[in-house]
Design goal:
The chain has 229 residues and is an alpha/beta fold. It has helices at 24-34, 38-47, 49-53, 59-69, 76-89, 95-106, 121-127, 140-143, 150-160, 174-181, 193-208, and strands spanning 9-12, 110-115, 137-139, 167-171, 186-189, 218-219. The chain has a 6-stranded parallel β-sheet, sandwiched between helices. α1 (24-34) runs antiparallel to α5 and α2 (38-47) runs antiparallel to α4 (59-69).
Length: 229
Amino acid sequence: MQIAIPGRLVLFDYGDVISEPQSAADTEALVAESRAEAEPFWRAYHAERNALDHGLISSHEYWARIGRACGSDWDEPRLQRLWSLDVRSWVSANAEVVRIIGDLRAGGTRMALLSNAAAEYGGLFRFSPLSRYFEQVFVSGEMGLLKPDPAIYVSVADELGMPPERIAFIDNREANIRGAESVGMSGHVFTHAAALRSYLDTLGADATRGRNEIPPTTCDADHRPEGQQ
């Protein structure tokens, strides 16, 4: 079913929106490869992630820091295997969200991607089969900016040549939506595909009727999943 939203652009987050959450099998494989206790591993994994996604440290340094936090000096083969397992854990797509993206494309709706992710994810996003739907791909690790800093949304809008008021942002974290709202974008806090489709259908109906007001942020549940930003 086509979703036409004339005059607007839909800006998608990637992690835990387009991608499936990290599976139990993937997270268990990471801990097993690290040969560390799960609690210090995940504490360091999350504590160092912003620096990686901000482009402040390399992936090599990121994994070396996790190793040191776990009391280990991991060798190069282990660092590479951990990096590979982590990337694999983020590339499984949510089939229903992919269908929505296809329906937006069929309706002639403009789309782009904005993800808090390490710089190397830029290549994965730009050369995946899904990339043909997006006018541009923006990755925080390449930009040196991190959601929810308002500057990242201003930069994206400028690059797209779109007023922020014409951009609807989809993200699984409310803080990131609030950052987008602060520069004039509207947004939807993603929890599942059915609610996203309903939001986009409403946006499309309003746009078709020529309504120009910015819709309120929507969220269909109080719980926001934690995951990649």
